[in-house]
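Sample entry (324 residues):
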Amino acid sequence: MKPIASTSLKVKLVKRIDEAQDIASFELAPSDGQPLPAFSAGSHIDVTTSEGIVRQYSLCNEPSETHRYLIAVLKEPHSRGGSKYMHEQLREGDELEISAPKNRFALAHDAPFSLLLAGGIGITPLLCMAERLDSMGSQFEMHYLTRSVARTAFRSRIKNSPFAAHVHFHHDDAEPSQKLELGELLKKHHGKAHLYFCGPPGFMSAVLDAVKALQWPEEQVHFEYFAGEPKSSGDTDSFEVQIASSGAVIVVQKDQTALEALSDAGVQIPSVCEEGVCGTCITRVLAGVPDHRDHCLTPAEQAANDLFTPCCSRAKSTRLVLDI
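Predicted structure, serialized as tokens:
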């Protein structure tokens, strides 16, 4: 799969709301007044700041709406520029460039039951999913984990929704009786539900470990990372990437990524997160075996060894031939 350029859209910020401590929502409307492209639950958009920084944010409004996109952004204490810009510099009326919606976290609409687990800002794609499932009359249950009520975005929206009875809140600073027993919950729904989860790295690792321990079927497990923890290259060897279209061979040194090596050689591949989370840089492998270090390919996709994320992954073979 060669990288595909995203359609660029111009939108303006029409409303900003503080949804919780360090979390704000941003309502974006088309600058030209034309309907925005349709999207499905679980979709995200790329947002380009005035400094040229690109970040991905999940859409959390009703998918049937074409007059606006709604995103929510957590102000990161160690922001690399994206969340800091959104919280501190963006003002109502300002214009932004965004991509058309993309979805690597889609609902399985034929699932008999869906189990949604949201950690912190991970509520954004799952809120849209919950509303979609409710509108279809599908059976589901959502558990929303946060550090405190003050850090729980969209609490009122959920409490006042028609599916409020299907949502359970869990807060780190509340009484122990309301804490989520993750293992017990997953055992209860094992083999009966499709599982969706999103949140910070620690939350993701805990759910993934529990899922693996219980041997949930891979096709019933769906997840999306907001931030990655790519494996360190450590003392791994250098390797080569060959460009199939030209035959050029580029050496990837131990202290650089394949994306950096390709860029230095004049081969530009679209990228956004550079953490193996977003999937923007995914490239097809024609020969060789990748050492997958990403968080966006499914286990089945990784096992096939025909896709490669040059921003973070490396190679088990001495050379990878890439379809570029």
